[in-house]
Amino acid sequence: MGPRRADGYHGLVTVFHAVSLFDEVTAESAGQDGVTVTGEGADRVPADHDNLALRAVTALRAAVGGAARAPAVHITISKRIPVAAGLAGGSADAAGALVACNELWRSGLDHQQLGAVAAKVGSDVTFALLGGTAVGRGRGERLTPALAPATPYHWVLAFADGHLSTPEVYAALDRLRAGGAKAGAKAGHPEPNLDAALMTALRSGDATRVGRALSNDLQPAAVALFPALRKTLAAGLELGALGALVSGSGPTCAFLASNADRALDLAVSLSGAGVCRSVARVTGPVPGSVILPDPKTAK
Length: 299
Ligand code: C5P
Known about the structure:
By secondary structure, the chain is α+β, with helices and mostly antiparallel strands. It is 36% helix and 18% strand. It contains ten helices and ten strands. The strands form three sheets. A four-stranded antiparallel β-sheet has the order 8-9-7-10, with helices on both faces. It has a three-stranded antiparallel β-sheet with strand order 1-5-6, with no helix packed on it. A three-stranded mixed β-sheet has the order 2-4-3. Helix 1 links the parallel strand 3 and strand 4 (73-79). Helix 1 (52-64) packs across helix 3 (111-121) and helix 5 packs across helix 8 (219-225). It starts with 13 loop residues before the first strand and ends in a 15-residue tail after the last strand. Cytidine-5'-monophosphate binds next to helix 5.
C-alpha cells in the first residue's frame, strides 16, 4: 500500500480473489430510478442515489448516451454479502447492476468498456465484474488476471460483530504511518511492489505456501480500530488455518484451509470459540458478475 495521493486515494498493488458468496441484483424497467435492498444488513445500505448500484446505473447511462437509450430502472438487491465488512459487497452490487442494465438496455458494451465505467464507480468495481484471481494496481481498478493454476482454495470467513468504514481504515493507516517506527508501521512506497512470495505461491497452487504468504497492509489499521480482530485471527491460526488475514478494510477475517474437510472443522471450531458473529465456508476463485436466468421465464 502506498501513501495517500493528492486525490485522497492510496496507490496500491493487491491480489483480488473472488469467493463464492454472492448477492443477487435484478434490474427492471420502472417510472424512475430506484433501489430496494433486502437480506443481510439491508438496513445499513443507502436506498437512494448514494447506493453504489444506482451510481453504477447513472454512470452506465452517461456512457451509453443518456436517458433515451437507457430509460429508468428499479434495482433490487438481495444481500448475502455482509455490509461494511471488507468484502467489497457494495462493489459487487454495482458490478451486478452494470451487467444487468447493459443487458436490459441492450447497450452491447463489452467487458472492457464495462470495466471503464466500473472504474469510475468505485475502486473495486472493475474486479467485481471480472472475478477470478487478479492483480490490482492504481486505486485497485487497473487489473491483470493472475496467471495461476485453477486450484480451488477453501476459505472460512469470520464475520465480525460490528462494521468498519473503508475511508476510516485508510485514515487510521495514515495515522499509524505518521506515528512511524513507534507504531511499527511501514511508510509505504508511492509505487508498491507486487508481493513476490505470494505470486510464487499462487503459481505453485500450493495452499500451504499461499497461506504463509497472506498479508494485508490495512490489517494493522483495521485491528487498531477493531481490537477484537486480534483474537479472531489468533484463534483461527491456533485452530489450524494455513494462513489468516483481515479481508480488505475489515472487519471480516479470512482463513485458508487445506481442503473442504479442514475448512468445515475450522468453521465449526471458530464459531464455537466465540471470537466472531458467524462464519461461512466459501471457495475461490469464482467468476465475477454473471447473468442468471430470469426466474419468471425459466422453465
Ligand atoms: O473507490 P471507493 O469509493 O471504493 O473508495 C472508498 C474510499 O476508500 C475512498 O474514498 C478512499 O478514502 C479509500 N481508498 C483509498 N485508496 C484506495 C481505495 C480506496 O484511500 N486505493
